[in-house]
Amino acid sequence: MKVAVLPGDGIGPEIIKEALKVLVALDLKIEFEQAEVGGAAYELSGHPLPEATTRLAGGADAVLFGAVGDWKYDHLARALRPEQAILGLRKHMGLFANFRPAICYPELTHASSLKPELINGLDILIIRELTGDIYFGQPKGRRKAVDGPFIGDDEGFDTMRYTRSEIERIMHTAFKAAQKRSKRVTSVDKSNVLETSQLWRDVATQVGKEYPDIALDHMYVDNAAMQLVKEPKKFDVLVTGNMFGDILSDEAAMLTGSIGMLPSASLNSKNQGLYEPSHGSAPDIAGKGLANPLATILSAAMMLRFSLNMESAALAIEQAVQRVLASGLRTPDIHSSGTQLVGTVEMGNAVVAEIR
Ligand code: IPM
Ligand code: MG
Fold first, then answer.
1. pLDDT tens digits for 82-129?
2. Ligand 1 pocket, 83 CB below 6 A?
3. What is the CATH number of domain 1-96+262-356?
């Protein structure tokens, strides 16, 4: 098995280092090869996603990804910004299915800004379509407005679009995931306004007929955003498009109070996957040893499970993380009185120690 390791920017290199330590401690038959991505790649070669990185990722069984982005690149042309690296990899590898679990660990209920009783035991799986929608729809660009009240004015435009096949395959992913959970799917759209969303809802309903064991309901995205803070435990599997999923997955992650804990997986139809923490590159704390490596370590566990077929090793990591939390170790993002404050490296070491 071959894993491409792409640490990226900000806290990326620090958290990836800890995840690699954990994987090495498990003594698995995995070959690791590292490459530059994002701002780090731009500095070296003038492009955030160099061809060598794309080739390495495409040829690997899985990609372990840190994070990309830094405000210092905001002035660059869009095609050269670090974020284009992750979008390019998603497109190149066909990673259409993004799994973002939002789980509230019992030890961390206090870390949420919601009342403990609302999020205690929370376990939502957001499935976000990742290669379509307004993110990739053409045409997009800048021009002079040709109609409306501001003719001739500068105008920015993007195209929201989905095809039936794209919606069908993400729906199958969602229904299959729900079969292994509590057999409920909420499909989120904006079909009261958008044609793209009306097709989404129609196709969701049609595919749902093939899964009589699953209860499907539909919700408008604005209402879903509200319900997530009002009564989050109502949700089980939530499936939605690229842009709504971007927004709702951050919201759901933060419900748990600990975005530093949440892993994610992006899969293609061959189960090749890219695994990354749900949080970003946090340039403000980079290099200070303050970042929580657990989301990346848990992403490595997802990688073992989904792409490398190493379920027992995945479980070993997840159980080690749970024991470390139970022992009271906390990085600053999840720290509270009565627990022991540790840094990035100590947290990684503690997980390794539990595995050994
Ligand atoms: C995410 C991020 C990315 C996205 C950015 C970095 C391009 O916000 O993975 O959620 O919008 O998909
Ligand atoms: Mg996002």
1. 999 999 999 999 999 999 999 998 888 888 889 999 999 999 999 999
2. yes
3. 3.40.718.10
